[in-house]
Structure formats: structure tokens, C-alpha cells
Amino acid sequence: MQQIQMVDLKGQYQQIKTDIDQAIQAVIDQAAFINGGAVGTFNTALSAYHQGAYVQSCGNGTDALQIALMALELEPGDEIITPAFTYFATVEVVLLLGLKPVFVDVDPQTFNLDPAQLEAAISNKTRAIVPVHLFGQCADMEAILAIAQKHQLKVIEDNAQSIGGSITCADGRIRQTGLMGDISCLSFFPSKNLGCYGDGGALLTKDEALYKKIKAIANHGQYQKYHHERVGINSRLDTLQAAILSVKLKQLDQYNLARQQVAAAYDAGFKHNTHIKTPFKTPGTTHVYHQYTLTLSDDIDRDQLKAALAEKGIPTMIYYPLPCHQQKALTSIYPEQGNFPVAEHLSRKVLSLPIHTEMFEEQIAYIIEQVNQQTGN
After folding, report:
1. Domain annotation for the chain: domains and CATH numbers
2. Which of 65, 139, 210, 215 is the most buried (most CB within 10 A)?
3. This prediction's pTM
């Protein structure tokens, strides 16, 4: 059996090696390394994938979040609502811009922002909500958008982990993640479902006026070269990465399907294990399984399980060992953030298993066998 990887980027590359190598060589031959033609080609393809939304690619997913907030022209002290259980970048950009993060606890099944607790967090200083489609599971956008509309708030979708996901709405419409908020932010970090071979990100919006702001902000605040009408940043998608992403975007739906098939095998293999809870899939949604994350029962010692699996050649990851409101970088600024019991519980009890596009049946079967054995099932 081949060595098990959390993410097998090398194996994935081997499957598309010819196309990737040709795409990279074309960029080198043209020697247009900054804003070369491959960037525009990728932006157009990404727009087509998202029903014609305006696309601005950028340097990484964190930059995308920062640019999105800058485009809303917020004032220092304005409040931004985010889930307590997410990667810190979602909160980091709020702090960098002098805004105040306000946390809402997450749903214990989906791990996403709990709409039932959302309105209680809204104040007269609230300006935007940043829901995160965590681990590939769609957030409850219908409920979130209804509350946002009621209070005239902007919505920025953190879609870094759920590109290709979808939600079936109450009226029967199927809507893609990334197309429901005012702005959506994507990350192309190599391990993402659509990942490049370095850093990369993008923003999506259906609002042309917002798009023009976003485009200028990402390019030093320029609407016209050397005419800086606003303060911006320098955040560009590298041409080489754009060329790689154009190749991989064609495979995205197949990549997501491969992840779903691994997840289905895990689900079946753990069906009778009473010591672990498998990822919840909201009815009517497309879970794209950026991560396959177990929730361990209270009688399982996570560190011992992680070590035991490592001894058996099975890597695992903990996303995330501390919820955002307990991070030192934040508590030093806002020492009283309140208690968020679900986020705190998940941070103690979640464990993510290998899931990617190049997994073999024998690897999956072995992982299932070992997890069941090590949890005493």
C-alpha cells in the first residue's frame, strides 16, 4: 500500500502533468510574469464557472477577505460578525482594518455560524456578516441573508473551503456557494479543492460597482495607471499560478466528486462506531469535503488517538485547536469576548482524516479499520 498522505499533491499532478507542464512553459515562453494573459484567461473561466459573476483574482485568500472589507468602506470601530470556529484569517483582516470582530457560536452539526444566535449579536455598529462555509459544508445562507436584509447588513461569504458547493433553496432554486453574498472570497492554497502551486485567491461579486472598487483596491487603488483615487494594496495572482489554475478548474467538479466518494466510504465504514460522529450533510446541499472531520465522543482522548493513528502510518490534522475568541492575538485586544460552548467543544474534539483526489480503496479501508480499532469499536 502506498504511503497515506493528508493531501497528495504529487499524485494529483501526475494525472495532469502534460497539461500543467505545457501551461507553465507557455507562460515562461511569453515571459509575461505579472498580469500575463493567463490571468485574464483564468478570471474569465472562473467567472463562467460562477454564472458570469465579476471576478478579481488576487494574491491569496486572506487578501481577498481584506479587499472585500475595504470595498465596503467601513469606519474604524464598525462591527463585523463572524463565527467563533473558523481559521483565524477571517478575523485577522477585521482587526487589521481597525474593525471589531463580534463572534457568534456555531451549529454543532454543520460547524457553521448558527443563524439562531445571529440577531442577538447585531448592534447599531454592525455593518457586515462573514459566514464561512467550513470544511466544504454550506452555511445556512437563506437564514443568514434574511437576517442581513432585515438589518441592512452586507454579507461577505468566506468560500475558501467550499468552491463548487451548492444549496437548494426553499423555493427550489439551486444556488452556488460564492454567489449569495455581496462579495465572496476564494483561496487557492495548494491543499484546497481548487489549489495552485503557491498562493492565490479571488473575489466574486454580481455588483458591477463593487467589482470596480475591488479591482482598484487590489491594484494600489488605481482606476487608471498612476492615478491613485483610493488607498489600496498590491495583491495579484501570479501568472504561473493562473495558468495552473486554468488547467485544474476544468477538473474541479471531478475533484469534488472524488472527495465525496471518499467521504461516502468513510461514512459507511464508521456507521456503527458510537465513539465518533461523522460530518453532517445538510439536506439539499452539496458538501465538497475540503476536510473530512470527525467529532470524537467525550470518552476518546484525541491526542492518544492521533498518536496511535500516526504509529499506523495514518496522518491526521486538528482544525482548529483553539477557537478564534480564545486566540492570544485577540484576547490581548478584546479580553471579554464571551463564551461560545459549541466552538470550544469542537476545538477539543474534532479530528480530520486524509481526504483528497488520489486516495485508493485499500487506503480508505485501512484508515476505517484502524480508526474503528483505536476507538474501541
Report:
1. 9-249 (3.40.640.10), 253-374 (3.90.1150.10)
2. 139
3. 0.96
